[in-house]
Recombination protein RecR (Flavobacterium difficile), 412 residues
Amino acid sequence: MEFSSKLLENAVNEVAMLPGIGKRTAMRLVLHLLKQPSEQTILLTEALTKMRNEIIYCQNCHNISDHTICEICNNPTRDHSIVCVVEDVRDVMAIENTRMYKGIYHVLGGKISPIEGISPSQLNITSLVEKVQEQKVSEIIFALSSTMEGDTTNFYIFKQIKAFNINVSTIARGISVGDELEYADEVTLGRSLLHRIPFESSIKSM
Amino acid sequence: MEFSSKLLENAVNEVAMLPGIGKRTAMRLVLHLLKQPSEQTILLTEALTKMRNEIIYCQNCHNISDHTICEICNNPTRDHSIVCVVEDVRDVMAIENTRMYKGIYHVLGGKISPIEGISPSQLNITSLVEKVQEQKVSEIIFALSSTMEGDTTNFYIFKQIKAFNINVSTIARGISVGDELEYADEVTLGRSLLHRIPFESSIKSM
């Protein structure tokens, strides 16, 4: 692309650095901002700058927060002995939306991935093991994505905490609610048979 | 979506104001910026702010430029009597990439669209008509999108300039190079038959 303006080119290149945004999309977004009143650009850039500079991670669960201890960790009605291990803040939001979980979280900040160069030391694993060592936890629930990286991370953490003799569980893998059986992949279908649940407990959650 | 942080929520909402970006994509982009060094956010916000505040539109053709007269209008080797009318800067870039056009441009800044509330007065039409009145122009080439809005805009401008007796043309509509005939829509195919060109002139451009 040959740009008629250096300022335009810089802006497009910076926006195109974002994941999943190519040069054409970046161009469309930048031209949109040019057509809008300049207040919109000010609001956008200020919100991003403020967020990047001032955001805090909860000292307890490493979730994104406005305070040093997040609202979930600060809530006395929640069960602080059950810890759900998740990848990032989006997973906390997804689980909170179900309104089914009353424990607290531990946000790892990613998954172990040799391909992307993410090693265990870059994740919040040490602080999780410490929590277990200090006997503050009775159950750990793994809620990572069901991928190679997710399974590797689960196993890595499990090896470090199994000596402490606490309950370690993982969220159920099975057929999604509303899915037709014939379209399910065989691994998922196989696991859902292997880990079948008593019918009476299945109708309780409906 | 329930956010764990007001700063995060603000940033996501502002990014989601951009066209074609939903809340989930905005969340992904914002979390990406949080994982990157803060320099990336600084570079992005500064590039956008600088562009929005300092960008100039060429006084002659209304194209985005770093100077009051853009490089194309300032180029003495180009034919200033041929004016190609386009919607926005992306069309200028697309035509420049063909390296087939040696005239200058006139950027309207949009198309007449009652549905989107864009009236002729919001576009750079007056200055185009003035150029024609001042007899600076020998040919006008319409290169707007082949849509209802594009055709309306062409016709609106044509009515205002036809009295001045200059050449007015529009870019050819026809089968795209490399396209199979059987998949072409009938309007395009019909027009390409109606506006057929001498075979000898068609092989010249190959």
About this structure: The longest strand of chain B covers residues 79-86. The beta strands of chain B are 56-57, 64-65, 79-86, 103-107, 139-142, 167-170.
